[in-house]
Amino acid sequence: GVFLYHHLQQKVRSAEALAQKYKQQQEALSAQLQVVYEHRSRLERSLQKERGEHKKTKEDFLVYKLEAQEALNKEKQDSMNRYGALSSQHKILKNQHEDVKKQLIDLQLQHNSLKLEHRKTLETHSQKYAQLQQEKDSEVTNLQDTVFKLREESKLLRKAHQEVHSQLLNAQ
To answer: Its GO CC terms (predicted)?
Structure first.
């Protein structure tokens, strides 16, 4: 009986030691499981936070995309308006350019005809001037001849006058 009692007590101690070992393992596993649960809880909170941030970022992006699209459409409309204005201004300037070109051609033609007319007038004046110069030279020559003749005549008249004067003095 003692032997059996002793044997059973050893088995109980051995079972208690084994139970103690299992209890320590369970506590260790429990602690590890607690760490895992806490880590999982942190991960879930972090995931929720990330999802919230992702949702907010997605909403911000959609708002940004909408604003960018509106800004792009507005810029496009402004560009089209500016293009239309520049296009009509270009047409106006092109028409003005054509008008100025026509005026230039008209003025060049007028200038050429005036130049021709001026040349003809200049030639006519040159001919008249040459003719008048010849007439003047001829008249000057005639006048010089007349002056020479009148001087000669004046000399003769002075001589005659002196002779008459001398004859009068002699007669007296």
So the answer is: Golgi membrane
